[in-house]
Amino acid sequence: MELNPRIRQADIEHLEKLVGKERVSQGTSNRELHSHDESFHTPSLPDVVMWPHSTDEVSKIMKWAFEKKIPVTPWGAGSSLEGNPVPVERGIVLDFQEMDKILDIRQEDFQVDVQPGVIYKELNKKLGRYGLFFPPDPGASATIGGMIANNASGIRTVKYGATRDCILRLVVVLSDGNVFEIGTRARKSSSGYALCHLFTGSEGTLGIITEATLKLVGLPASVMAVLATFPTVKDATITVFHIMSSGLTPSAMEFLDAEVVKVLNRDRGLAMKEMPTLLMEFHGYSKRGLEEEMAFVESICQNNNCSLLDKGIGPEERNRLWEIRHLVVESIKRSHPGLLLLIMDVAVPLSRYSDMVTFIKEAVQNLTAYVFGHAGDGNIHVAIMDNPQDENRWARVKEANQKIIQKALEFEGTCTGEHGVGIGKRVFMDLEHGKSLEVMRRIKRLFDPHEIMNPGKIFP
Ligand SMILES: Cc1cc2nc3c(=O)[nH]c(=O)nc-3n(C[C@H](O)[C@H](O)[C@H](O)COP(=O)(O)OP(=O)(O)OC[C@H]3O[C@@H](n4cnc5c(N)ncnc54)[C@H](O)[C@@H]3O)c2cc1C
């Protein structure tokens, strides 16, 4: 196997001494597994994959990589959608799968300390026994390290915030191997620069997260779910604005267009009405309080021509609804074998949400496209299935992508609400950030002077 010119066989032997031979692999299947995420972006093989077990091991690896100027790309579960963990400049992939310990659950503080490889669904299963949960819920089987690095969010962000809002303290290893503990265990702080916020969403380009203290939420005493269908996209999306500005605080507010519902019916054997649909959930203290909220939700929906309102859905049916919502991307992919997925992830201010969805529906009308997303956050996903080998068709897909992102920026929104920049969104960074992109470049140079941390990401 041809190695990166900067890595020699003797270097591999050195790395094996640092962590043990069994946790360093140059095997083809391991390298292939770590060459791509869930996106269409071109795979790139790393030279070597390593599975560290401790902060100390990560620090030693980074010290060595810094001296040798070898690229290092951290890896969670590889579920990203923008090529975020693809090792485009080869080098080392550090897979955190084996740093997966829940270190300390501090129930009375609503906090948990974890290693980065913990899978968030497993974490929530465990926390449920303490009456707690970690709210950001991206759906895929993501790790906490990957969620922090991408600032992931999900269906419950509308009430409880994105990952960034739930990080209190981090242990990070910088590119030169230095280890820092940043943040505190206090629920709030005005003490100096918000370094935890800086590392959250940095996609492994500033340093490596080896431990995190997460802020948790108590499980709600009562929960109620609502499914509402509407004759038009406009009716459904205007309802989102009306509910969000009414003083109600949904804990989930998802939009599915009729095409998504059709795919789910076919792929999952459902019988939902094939119309624009809102899925909502409300958390509260008592059933009575929630019923009052429900009456208000119902009146708002009816004022916007709602044609079916299924409210007060029981816990089992509700869980199934969210499970199905999480399977949207999978069902879309399964319905178009042989085609690749390009998924957009714009977010706009709520007042522009309805106009943005209307614009998108028009922009993708001649493509195989599905529109859905975390409506209560003004976050819209557009999944387009097509064949990148067909140059004409792929050019049309890219043109739609460009038009949609430009419109989101015109509406003072962002090119990515939660999937991160990775490889795919780099070209839009100038347009979105203008001169302030230079500030990000300076921060990058400060933390990573040799440009070895997940190179080829974020910056155009
Ligand atoms: C079906 C499907 C649905 C999805 N839905 C959502 C959704 O609703 N919301 C959402 O936000 N995302 C969603 N995603 C995208 C993805 O799941 C998230 O971005 C997730 O946070 C990625 O986590 P991961 O563990 O797979 O990380 P990876 O993909 O392995 O890595 C993500 C980034 O984090 C870096 N990284 C990983 N570990 C560390 C570490 N310890 N220190 C520093 N950097 C690190 C990597 O280098 C990379 O840049 C979805 C993906 C799929 C496939």
Question: What report would you give on this structure?
Answer:
The protein is α+β, with helices and mostly antiparallel strands. It folds into four domains: 9-97, 2-Layer Sandwich (Uridine Diphospho-n-acetylenolpyruvylglucosamine Reductase, domain 2); 99-218, Uridine Diphospho-n-acetylenolpyruvylglucosamine Reductase, domain 3 (2-Layer Sandwich), CATH 3.30.465; 222-329, Alpha-Beta Plaits; 336-420, Alpha-Beta Plaits, CATH 3.30.70. Helix content is 36%, strand content 21%. The strands form four sheets. The chain has a seven-stranded antiparallel sheet with strand order 15-12-14-13-17-18-16, sandwiched between helices. The longest helix has 20 residues, at 391-410. The model has no long low-confidence stretch (mean pLDDT 95). Flavin-adenine dinucleotide (FAD) is lined by residues 37-38, 73-81, 84-85, 96, 116, 138-140, 142-143, 145-147, 149-150, 152-154, 203-204, 208-209, 329-330, 418-419, 454.
Note the main attributes of this structure.
460 residues; alpha+beta; Uridine Diphospho-n-acetylenolpyruvylglucosamine Reductase, domain 3; 7-stranded antiparallel beta sheet; 5-stranded antiparallel beta sheet; 16 helices; binds flavin-adenine dinucleotide
